[in-house]
Amino acid sequence: MASIKLILRTNQKDQTGHSPLYIRIIKDRKTKFITAGVKLKESEWDELKQKVKKNHPNSARMNANLSQKIADAEGQVADMERKVKTVSIKKLKEAIKGKEVPNFFTYSRKHCERIKGNVSISTYKTYGVYLDKFEKWVGTTDVYFDDITVSLLMDYLAHMSNKLNNGNTTQRYSIMILAIMFKEAIKEEIIPDYMYPFNKLKLKKDASKRQFLKKEQFEAIGSFKLKENTKACIYRDMFIFSIYAGGLRFSDVLEIQHKHFNEEERRIKKVIRKTGRVHQFKIGQLALDIIHKYKNKKTTPDDFIFPVVTNKDLFFSNEEFRYTFSESINKAANFQIKRIAKKLEITTNVSFHISRHTFATNALNNGMRIEHVSKLMDHNDISTTQIYAKIINEELDNAVDKYIH
Predict the structure, then answer these.
(1) What global pTM score does this model have?
(2) Best label site of 26, 223, 279, 372, fewest CB within 10 Å?
(3) How far apart are CA 334 and CA 52, in angstroms?
């Protein structure tokens, strides 16, 4: 026989001192909670009498409502246990609450499909990956919003840390995706805001560390002997081009076409994939030399500067193909760049994205104003660019400590 009782969950107390009231079901030593739709202060709840105290202005009406909820819950449990002798606690919970609280995974999957056309393929797939990860851990899709408590999330964090060896950043992303689903459900008034359990969590942050290559290092990569027109050579040239062309991201370097480049002004102008903004800037001689390397008499304005994309029509018409293809080529480029760096005995963990950091630190080292670096990198906020200025200052401090005693 299942037992039913009202519990004020003070571990979920909000900033005003109110805690949510839940209906607790215990069966076969297993416990489930169902929201009662009420929030109270500890001083307003009588645990022994299972009633709202008279110091609450609506105590009489609330007690009548709660009594009815308990009576309905006990009736549902009695009916279920009479019909099915081996009824599970999950089935009891479903019978009591009906459609009051939706299934977390059902809502989240439906929400992801609804926004699929309004977010990038990368964002859509990231949501799916982290929802799959959480589902695999809980071991079932039979999870309701009010099942996801602070205690459950802390167990999930412990699992990621101890079993999966996930770093702080991965743990944060894993929790943040779940939090986004809660916020959307609250915004749509599908669940009450007091079901949001994430405010109680303390997520650790990894120290932000931007790695970059020094001038002699990326020059060595640029001059490394490779067979012309091979994939390794093209990927290396794309990497060096990014360093000398405002730190363009891989996706933008991959899809840059000759029509995006004004030869007379030596200026690139294109829509940046990540931000959707039109970005334009002048390039230097070394970047210009790379463009000329891949240009010939048959080149048309619609041709890609770097001959990597083979199906141009599919690339631009099918966003999912473009995302999958770009991911694959990015991995291939990273492999080749790492291979070259290893042969040159460069110990920095080199990837294509490091070209962006390298551009910023190199430009600042050469005396470019931080406002200009920020503009060239198409940063929304100069505070993002200031991270690189901090790196330069740390390098300077290290030099002083090393050479000046």
Answers:
(1) 0.62
(2) 223
(3) 63
